[in-house]
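Input:
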Amino acid sequence: MSRLLGLYAAAAFAFLHLPLLVLAVFSFNESRFTVWTGFSLKWFDAAFRDAQLAEATWNSLLIAFAATLASTIIGTLCAYGLWKRSSRAVSGTLYLSLVTPEIVMGVSLLAFFQWLFRYVGMHLGMHTVIAAHTMFCIAYVVIVVSARLRSMDASLEEAALDLGATEWTTFRRVTLPLIFPAVAAAGLLAFTISFDDYVITSMVAGVDSETLPMVVYALARRGANPVVNAISTLIVVGLGVLIAVSSKLQETR
Amino acid sequence: MDRLRRAFLAPGVVTLSLLFVAPLAIILLYSFQSRGVYGGVAPEFTGDNYSRIADGLYGAIFLRTFVLAGVATVGCLLLGFPLALFISRAGKRRNLYLQLVMLPFWSSFLVRTYAWMVLLRDTGLINTALTGLGLIREPLPLLYNDGAVFVGLVYGYLPFVVLPLYATLERLDKSLTEAAADLGASPWQTLIRVIVPLCAPGFRAAAVLVFIPCLGAYLTPDLLGGGKTVMAGNLIQNQFTTARDWPFGSAVALVLMLLSLVLLVVWMRTQSEDAL
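Output:
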């Protein structure tokens, strides 16, 4: 039975990993078809020369930076507040934001922004995308930071308080340095989630805020395309590095 | 003390109220109004949007969503359990294998879905290989159908079942399987009659964990179903864009949201049962 199980596991791992490997391999293929004709970097070259892709990448990076900064600060404070005393309403809302289908979140944000813009003269754009991303990243940050807080030695905080530090000083000088690896890990996670989002972004983006996933989606919609293979390979490698660093940081004690 | 705690929670509470709760409240309001002449929202109260959901066409889309999500969930459980079993028996390599399961999950969901388009399309790897081997003349219609959506969903959410099933297998009392073996059960009998029944709570938790995202799936049916396979998520998107019927789209979105909420509560129950 164990041999059968081993064979099965090999097949299952192939199922999980081959699609992305095939994609990566064929992004280096000379031909635009799925027949290997020789090694070439021309699709990467084409991707780097594309002005629309460059602008979309820049937008995505800008949005991800802003949303990461905001959601990491808000989420860390929130996790600390919840650790001090739990609140079912707040954690319930956070969990709910995690299970809400992305498309539901997207259309409700669209409806909300359009309603808001009746009263203030604004349009959909980078700021609405950043606001949306900040919101949906908070729950992930809270989860990562909370896990770290739970494993922290609470007596260190008590010692600081006993020695006369104020609550705020204790947080800033004792707790924050102790949980910092987790905060950084949460930030990297938020960055990847924001950078990769398509569904919500496509609902709340304006004409000047097309992101990289939006371009990839539009190209993929027209059928497979070797330039998309090249961009996809770059995205997978880039996000992979960030996630690897993030999980190393989460293990740091 | 309490004031400071409130200060820590305040930014999060404000952001979530403004950008998560308020938007849901707005679509709740819209869902009870009717479509305006120019595609806007007319401020008159009606329950029509909800009764329309049960109508033939839309009812069929919901049914289809349930069936596809259900079949994908069963597929994930059937494929995921042997993998979890393998990992739980892998000794020192457990962590490596668990990371291998999670690895694709951490990369871009959009790219992972697109990767299946590269494999399944008419000139994709599978069809090219089969034609090259002389097994088929015409490319098989692999992409843009329910089967492609099923494969995409199983591929996307397989890690969601492997982890909880692995956790359940790890917590299993080893003496029970040893007892079964001592009493003369074959490894297969032990698996079917002892291990699988003992893993029932893990199966339940894993099923809910996969069923929720499958129910709300949008990108997978959109890209791999090619517009033919419409799930509830696509219906919502369509109502907010092409069809411009926001009130009806809002009603569909809220029903989907409510279903996810109910399932989340069910999942939380299974978690607390496990803890006992």
